[in-house]
Amino acid sequence: MPPSPRLKVSLVEDRFNDLCARLGIDPPPVRFIPGARQTQKHGLTLWGRADVLTGITIYLNIETLEVDRLRYVSRELVETLLHELRHMYQYETWAPERIDADRKRPYQEQEMERDAEAFAKSHLSEWRGIVRVSRTQPSSPFSKLACHDRRQMV
Predict the structure, then answer these.
(1) What's the number of domains the chain is made of?
(2) In terms of residue numbers, what domain contains 19?
(3) 33-72 tens-digit pLDDT
(4) I need a surface site. Which of 28, 70, 130, 150 has the fewest CB within 10 A?
């Protein structure tokens, strides 16, 4: 069986720095880690974590999606990044007592989560180009992506 193509994700640094400046926070380090600590989100395996000390980590395991789904993958990654950046903003601006009290609630009822989700959804179209997503060329000549690329060359 041919190997699955790999997903390559990168930040557009200028746009990312602009977004952080608008939020009034220093740009945190952002890491995209394939295949680790997975959970399901809307049929796409994607999970993010914001930490004041280590920055933002987005875990993904989406190598098997088709070529035509890259736009969807990009949208989901931008939404997750915006959500986690909002958490970074909350950690810097909200009182620690407010955060601690909010964390005692069930996850879906936490004010932090509702605020981050609303922020991500309302700013998604404005910041959609903040992440670049592409597939690396698979090594097998039998893969769908390699066949697609060969047809494009002819």
Answers:
(1) 1
(2) 7-153
(3) 876 544 555 444 566 777 777 889 887 766 554 445 778 8
(4) 150
Considering only 23-37, 73-87, 98-112, which range has the smallest mean pLDDT? 23-37
- Alpha-carbon distances of 13 from 17, 52, 100, rounded to whole Å: 6, 20, 32
Alpha-carbon dihedral sign for residues 8, 14, 15, 18? positive
DSSP 12: -
Under 8 Å between Cβ of 136 and 5: yes
The predicted model scores a pTM of 0.77
Contact by Cβ (8 Å): 138, 5: yes
Note whether residue 1 is domain-resident. Answer: no
Select from 30, 40, 6 the least CA-distant residue to 83: 30
**How far is C-alpha 28 from the geometric centre of its chain's CA atoms?**
14
2 located within any domain: no
The answer to whether residue 127 scores a pLDDT higher than 70 is: yes
Q: HSE-up of 66 (CA within 13 Å, CB side)? A: 5
